Write a sequence for this structure.
């Protein structure tokens, strides 16, 4: 063992210098300019050049059509748009970090479920004065609103609803879509009788996707949030989960299914109903060997508890928000053009099957002749509502808390009443934070 | 006259059992025991091998499948719809080469930097005694307990303040925060096995501490240093969240690059993702093939103190 030639004084001197260095670096870091904490992310708002952030710029299916929109704008306005993208699953966390850090400016593509969390950061422009020029539908405008202000211009507005496989329904002798929960159960039992590994309803049963149960809770009469108070745990939510458990026990729904699994099952002709967004038709039929499947896919109103009730559906779509700071004026014009220009929205629809958010866009011949889209808009989107928890930054945690309790019921670890009481308490605690 | 049957001795000097009936029974029992232990050993090898290799086989099978057959039910162990289109599609993706170059540069620099700094730190902890040594060692170990996500926000803020975002430096420095502590502990263990008498002999012969470390100790610890470097390389190669947050499009490494390219909002191009994963793992496999003897030596070198 070698003993050190350094004396105690020398060692203390070294540590002192090291500590001073660390403090100095910290002071430098603190003094360095940063966008964090300021309402604007800096830069000239009048600049013609700006950034456009969208997860779709990563994706092979979406990238060409968005790049075309960007290129057309750059040519027409003689400006430069810098395209920024992050993977969809990491988008919200990356955007939160970068928006807070002052790195994100310009136009930002947002899922409507994320708008509230982003708006709460105080860096988005209120687009109320601009939205009036767009001719947006009421449902679409609502999807871009938070706390009474229009923070997002609706780009595509749809919903998450039920898709039915008419081929399987016909095989099971079901002539019409079920309209009530009771009819739906009977239909599922008929489909179960087909055998061959058919899952009558490929409902979400994995925790990551169990937020799909929220429209069913609303179907049974649970408001989920009423006057700021969480109502999960009431009789309606317990009934909904009890019914879901019944479907699970009778093997009318399958265990361990998320949206991707449901699409795979539906694509292989092994599921008669499943929940998806309007874009599901294109996505599911593309991955199916059966090229006639697309024609067999039908949008269906979610069954109601009793005749006369309003079918429930979750609003779904994307908005374009504008960050205060560099290029905000030009970015606002770009967002307005992209979401309202008829030629642009029709071309985008043709490429991606995502419905426009304006009345004129929906009436365009290319969109109007697509029966799947028009039926979906009429049957499902017209009565769709957003989740009452979207207004909270802890929305994802609330969804997970409820989903975990529902899954505990499905696997037999908990009773519906206890689970929903627990879920309600956890959701309320998260809201209070 | 009594005749005894001589006991035959095998080539290794073990006396063989007698050729009597009892001896034949013993031989039979020994053969059965040997057979049973071989069957048990080979079964264990097959199970462990299957556990390790089946995912690799499934990766290859998926890479050779069409998208429609990827999730077919029931699944087929041997795919029938084979295609090479997933591999040919990689050639059209020029971004992939960019991601691979970035990963190679960043992981290599991280490995070298981690080993260099960890060598001096490990040597200091092993061969010197000074006040605060144990505290420093525990501090280095404690830094491993922090989850990466906790460090991410701080590092992002600091790098952003210094204008270092979207640079190789940001990636290398951030990767080093989690590779260096491991390297320090590995190398400390390796230096502990080098006898102090060697250092004393060097000192008697007039070698300075600097000369002793570089000319005598480092060559002896080279296998361990290579092993530590390989660990640091693999950790830097595999990192996702730091690379996604701190690097822009130009400096993106493979993990976030592959996710961005193949995992979308609505679907994941699994066959193409598997094909890309196979292709980009080739450099790492080649590196390991050449350096595996150092890896094995380095892992075990610090395990027993002399």
């Amino acid at each position: 063992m070698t003993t050190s030639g350094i004396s105690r004084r020398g060692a203390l001197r070294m540590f002192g210098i090291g500590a001073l260095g660390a403090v100095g670096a910290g002071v430098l870091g603190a003094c360095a300019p940063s966008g964090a904490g300021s309402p604007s992310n800096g830069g000239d708002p009048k600049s013609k050049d700006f950034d456009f952030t969208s997860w779709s710029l990563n994706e092979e299916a979406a990238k060409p059509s968005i790049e075309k929109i960007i290129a057309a704008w750059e040519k027409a306005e003689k400006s430069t748009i810098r395209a920024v993208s992050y993977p969809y699953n990491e988008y919200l966390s990356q955007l939160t970090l970068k928006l807070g850090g002052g790195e994100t400016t310009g136009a930002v593509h947002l899922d409507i479920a994320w708008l509230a969390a982003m708006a709460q950061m105080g860096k988005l422009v209120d687009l109320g004065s601009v939205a009036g020029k767009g001719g947006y539908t009421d449902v679409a405008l609502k999807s871009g609103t938070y706390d009474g202000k229009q923070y997002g211009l609706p780009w595509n507005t749809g919903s998450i609803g039920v898709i039915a496989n008419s081929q399987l329904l016909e095989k099971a002798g079901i002539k019409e879509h079920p309209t009530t929960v009771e009819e739906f159960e009977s239909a599922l039992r008929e489909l179960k009788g087909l055998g061959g590994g058919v899952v009558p309803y490929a409902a979400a049963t994995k925790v990551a996707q169990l937020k799909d149960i929220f429209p069913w809770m609303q179907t049974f009469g649970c408001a989920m949030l009423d006057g700021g108070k969480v109502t999960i745990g009431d009789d309606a939510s317990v009934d909904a989960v009890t019914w879901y458990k019944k479907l699970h026990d009778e093997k009318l729904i399958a265990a361990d299914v998320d949206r991707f699994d449901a699409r795979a099952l539906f694509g292989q002709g092994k599921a008669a109903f499943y929940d998806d967004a309007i874009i599901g038709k294109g996505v599911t039929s593309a991955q199916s060997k059966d090229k006639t499947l697309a024609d067999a896919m039908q949008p269906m109103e979610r069954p109601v508890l009793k005749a006369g009730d309003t079918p429930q559906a979750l609003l779904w779509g994307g908005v374009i928000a504008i960050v205060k700071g560099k290029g905000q004026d030009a970015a606002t014009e770009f967002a307005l053009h992209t979401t309202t220009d008829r030629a642009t929205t029709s071309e985008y629809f043709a490429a991606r099957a995502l419905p426009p958010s304006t009345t004129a866009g929906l009436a365009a011949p290319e969109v109007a002749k697509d029966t799947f889209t028009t039926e979906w808009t009429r049957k499902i989107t017209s009565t769709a509502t957003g989740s009452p928890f979207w207004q909270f930054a802890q929305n994802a945690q609330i969804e997970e808390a409820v989903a975990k309790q529902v899954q505990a019921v499905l696997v037999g670890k908990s009773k519906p009443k206890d689970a929903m009481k627990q879920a309600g308490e956890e959701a309320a605690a998260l809201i209070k934070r | 006259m009594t005749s005894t049957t001589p006991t035959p001795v095998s080539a290794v000097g073990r006396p063989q059992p007698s050729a009597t009936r009892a001896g034949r029974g013993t031989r039979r029992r020994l053969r059965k025991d040997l057979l049973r232990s071989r069957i048990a050993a080979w079964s264990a090898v097959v199970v462990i091998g299957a556990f390790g290799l089946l995912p690799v086989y499934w990766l290859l099978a998926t890479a050779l499948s069409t998208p429609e057959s990827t999730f077919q039910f029931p699944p087929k162990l041997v795919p029938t719809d084979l295609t090479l289109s997933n591999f040919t599609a990689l050639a059209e993706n020029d971004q992939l080469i960019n991601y691979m170059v970035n990963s190679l540069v960043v992981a290599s620099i991280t490995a070298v930097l981690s080993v260099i700094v960890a060598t001096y730190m490990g040597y200091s902890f092993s061969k010197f005694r000074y006040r605060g040594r144990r505290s420093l060692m525990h501090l280095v170990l404690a830094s491993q307990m922090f989850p990466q996500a906790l460090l991410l926000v701080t590092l992002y803020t600091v790098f952003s303040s210094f204008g270092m975002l979207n640079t190789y430096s940001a990636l290398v420095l951030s990767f080093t925060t989690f590779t260096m502590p491991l390297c320090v502990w590995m190398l400390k263990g390796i230096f502990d096995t080098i006898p102090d008498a060697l250092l004393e002999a060097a000192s008697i012969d007039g070698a300075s501490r600097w000369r002793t470390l570089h000319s005598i100790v480092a060559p002896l610890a080279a296998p361990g240093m290579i092993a530590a470097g390989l660990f640091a390389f693999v950790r830097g190669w595999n990192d996702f969240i730091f690379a996604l947050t701190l690097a822009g499009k130009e400096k993106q490494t493979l993990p976030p690059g592959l996710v961005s390219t193949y995992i979308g909002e609505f679907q994941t191009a699994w066959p193409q993702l598997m094909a890309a994963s196979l292709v980009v793992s080739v450099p790492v496999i080649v590196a390991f093939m050449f350096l595996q003897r150092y890896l094995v030596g380095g892992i075990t070198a610090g395990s027993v103190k002399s």
Q: What stands out?
A: The CA atoms of residues 47 and 222 of chain B lie 35 Å apart. Confidence is low (pLDDT under 50) at residues 1-13 of chain B. Chain B is about 75% helix and 0% strand.
